[in-house]
């Protein structure tokens, strides 16, 4: 009986050791995935006139919406990590179009729209759940709730939730950010546009969740400003 008990204790110790090793390996894998996301995002920044601060702000806005919608912590964390990859497909768009200071003509805009599919192709077919999640966002974040978006024309809740969330966050930050070709919109005007597009461009539930947190939105914008981006 004593010998059997010793074997039982030894097995329990072995099981605990294996569990700890699996935990360490999983944590290391997630850290490598995060590094891939960060490095790919930085690569896209070199070709996109939008700033790194924009990527952080829109990701934080996205997490804010997600929390307000009552999603669990793992979904919120994954969205925060994946959202900055939404425009990675712009690396495949010619500079003459991507960096054009004025409005794109119809043929140029058709080429620009290809960045959603390009981003999906870059990120998909990976065993990583995080990269697959980012691929879904890249493909669908320009869809509209009324079905008039691109590239597939999905509508309503057929559009993945993460993409519906990122759509609100991305447009708001684009409106309220200064660029060489435009001035930043005042917050009140940007909030008003988001409200007007409720049920048209944007998911009503995502709009309501976003507008319910105006104070936090101001705080995120101020904390991660283009000129005062915290050093990580």
Question: How would you describe this structure to a colleague?
Answer:
It is a single chain. The protein is mainly alpha-helical. It is 63% helix and 0% strand. The protein is built from eleven helices and no strands. Helix 2 (52-68) packs antiparallel against helix 11 (214-223), helix 3 crosses helix 7 and helix 7 packs across helix 8 (161-175). It is elongated.
List its traits.
232 residues; mainly alpha; 0% strand; elongated
In short:
This protein has 232 residues and is mainly alpha-helical. It has helices at residues 2-45, 52-68, 73-82, 95-98, 106-112, 114-123, 129-140, 161-175, 187-196, 204-211, 214-223. The longest helix has 44 residues, at 2-45.
Helix content: 55-70%
Which ranges are low-confidence, i.e. pLDDT below 50, for 5 or more consecutive residues? Answer: none
Q: Main beta sheet: strand number and arrangement? A: none
First CA to last CA: what distance? 57 Å
Number of strands: 0
Q: Multimeric state of these chains?
A: single chain
Topology:
Elements: H1 2-45, H2 52-68, H3 73-82, H4 95-98, H5 106-112, H6 114-123, H7 129-140, H8 161-175, H9 187-196, H10 204-211, H11 214-223
């Amino acid at each position: 009986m004593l010998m059997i008990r010793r074997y039982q204790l030894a097995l329990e110790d072995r099981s605990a050791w294996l569990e700890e090793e699996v935990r360490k390996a999983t944590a290391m894998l997630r850290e490598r995935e995060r590094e891939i996301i960060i490095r790919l995002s930085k690569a896209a920044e070199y070709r996109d006139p939008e700033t790194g601060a924009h990527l952080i702000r829109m990701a934080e806005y996205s997490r804010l919406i997600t929390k307000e919608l009552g999603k669990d912590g793992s979904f919120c964390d994954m969205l925060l990590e994946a959202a900055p990859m939404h425009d990675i497909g712009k690396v495949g768009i010619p500079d003459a179009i991507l960096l054009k200071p004025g409005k794109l003509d119809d043929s140029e805009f058709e080429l620009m729209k290809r960045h959603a599919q390009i981003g999906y192709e870059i990120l998909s077919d990976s065993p990583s759940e995080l990269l697959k999640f980012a691929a879904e966002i890249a493909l669908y974040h320009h869809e509209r709730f009324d079905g008039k978006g691109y590239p597939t024309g999905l509508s309503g809740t057929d559009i993945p939730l993460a993409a519906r969330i990122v759509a609100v966050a991305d447009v708001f930050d684009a409106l309220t950010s200064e660029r060489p070709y435009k001035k930043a919109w005042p917050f009140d005007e940007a909030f008003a546009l988001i409200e007007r597009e409720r049920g048209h461009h944007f998911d009503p539930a995502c709009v309501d969740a976003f507008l319910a947190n105006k104070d936090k939105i101001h705080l995120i914008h101020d904390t991660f400003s283009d000129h005062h981006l915290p050093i990580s």
